[in-house]
Amino acid sequence: MKMGEEELFKAAAENTRRILPPVVQSMNEVMRDMFVADGMPKELADLMVGEQEPEMTMWVISNERKIEGAASMLYEDKLHSLAEKVGTDLYILPSSVHEVIAVSVEMGEPEELARMVAEINMDQVDLSERLSNQVYHYDKDLRKITLATDTPNKRLDGVVAEQGLVYEAKQSR
Predict the structure, then answer these.
(1) pTM (2 decimals)?
(2) How far is Cα 30 from Cα 4, in angstroms, rounded to an integer?
């Protein structure tokens, strides 16, 4: 292809975004769409789901196909628009390889959210589709994603890794 690594990366990023455009929807919209797809009349689905204030909403970030869409969290312009709409920084919760969930930082402490992510991973997400038990922080002013939690001893399969052995040096007499 006669492309350098940087050119190839840029082309791949542009093509991925063009072929699988990112989508941000409220969890309520996702649920409404599922109800309608299962045959529920749209009017009834609208009544069942309702709406919430943006800062109290869970937001699903994926792609149009909703397959392998978690990488859509890397499209910073979508995160920034969402953070502006919500009015706060965001916590990003890895849901599966197919999507991530974003919430206002006012919806809980990152450690609580990480416990919830780990619990859902263990109970409801196939190991091959798990991304992480960590929670990420999106700073809307810096426009940057960082790790909000640090649980290095937790594996994706739910087994708690052994703590490293700590040796105390004894003073010689």
Answers:
(1) 0.80
(2) 40
pLDDT cut 70: percent of the chain above it: 87
Q: Order of strands, edge to edge, in the sheet holding 59-63?
A: 22-26, 59-63, 99-104, 90-96, 136-139, 144-147
Question: Per the structure block, which two tokens stand in for 161?
Answer: 């890794």
For the chain, give every domain's residue range. Answer: 5-147
**In sequence order, which residues have a C-beta less than 8 Å from that of residue 32 and are 6 or more positions away?**
42, 45, 46, 48, 49
Using alpha carbons, list the distances in angstroms from residue 80 to 2, 32, 112, 140: 35, 25, 24, 6
- Which of 77, 82, 110, 78 has its CA nearest to residue 94? 110
As a whole number of Å, the CA-based R_g of the chain is 20
Alpha carbons 100 and 135: distance in angstroms, whole number: 10
